[in-house]
Amino acid sequence: MTEAPIRAGGVRALWAGNPHSVVQRGLIAARSSSWIVVLSGFFEPVFYLASMGIGLGSIIGDVETSSGAQVSYAAFIAPALLAVSAMNGAIYDSTWNVFFKLNYGKLYEGMLATSLGPLDVALGEIMYALLRGLLYATGFMIIMQILGLNLAWTAILAIPAVLLIAFGFASLGMAVTSYMKTFQHMDWINFVLLPMFLFSATLYPISVYPEWIQHVIMAFPLWHGVELVRGLTTGILMPDMWWHVLYFVVMIGIGLVFTTKRLRALFLD
């Protein structure tokens, strides 16, 4: 019996140019899964919008955004919930699903035994997570349009912005998941996501906090996503929005590098 050669050096050791095969495998496997679980991630932000944006919003009235504009409370939290929806969709697939495939399904060992490289697997899984984020975001955007919460034509640009947000969370989420060994470790995902959801200027302006807390919140990736989407849906475009885009570009790069190196260290080296 001959042993399979260990890949070493060069881009070809990491990349075969075939991540769509990983996406195709995920779509085929999804046919037998419960679509109720998938849809539940879409309805969560819708319920928040209905209960807080419409219900509580009728009492609060208008809210001032970070740019100084006055918008209704529903129009204030709707873009934030859109960013949260994309984050949740991407995180679920890039953490829990990846954790099972990595530690129990042993799927990546089989994938990397083929011509696929670790970068193919990483990009394929992240692209599959993006499909879920896109599904949530598109559905929620339609609801926003029906309720008249998209205040400018630039709201259509929120879709690619949401994909950028989902890409950032999916790439970094997969990188972090590759270091987790037990289901108890996965509790840290919710421990991080919940504070981000509550404090990233999603439900109220960041100006309500003391200045030092504001700087802490501004380090959260979700805050950058919320500010980016909110600016697009309200039509308040500012040069600072490019910093939000750059934040996620760097986040994507870090996530891809760490995920690729981790998969190679686990299964190839």
UniProtKB/TrEMBL annotation:
Q: Which domain of life is it from?
A: Bacteria
Q: Which family does it belong to?
A: Belongs to the ABC-2 integral membrane protein family.
Organism, scientific name: Microbacterium gallinarum
* Transmembrane regions: 35-60, 72-92, 129-147, 153-176, 188-206, 241-259
* Key words of the record: Antibiotic resistance, Cell membrane, Membrane, Transmembrane, Transmembrane helix, Transport
Q: Name the predominant localization.
A: membrane
Entry's InterPro entries? ABC2_TM, ABC2_TM_bact-type, ABC_2_transport, Nod_factor_ABC_transporter
Q: Where in the cell is it found?
A: Cell membrane; Membrane
Task: Tell me how this protein sits in the membrane.
Answer: Multi-pass membrane protein
Q: Which residues form the ABC transmembrane type-2 domain?
A: 36-266
Q: Which Pfam families match?
A: ABC2_membrane
Please state what the protein is called.
Transport permease protein
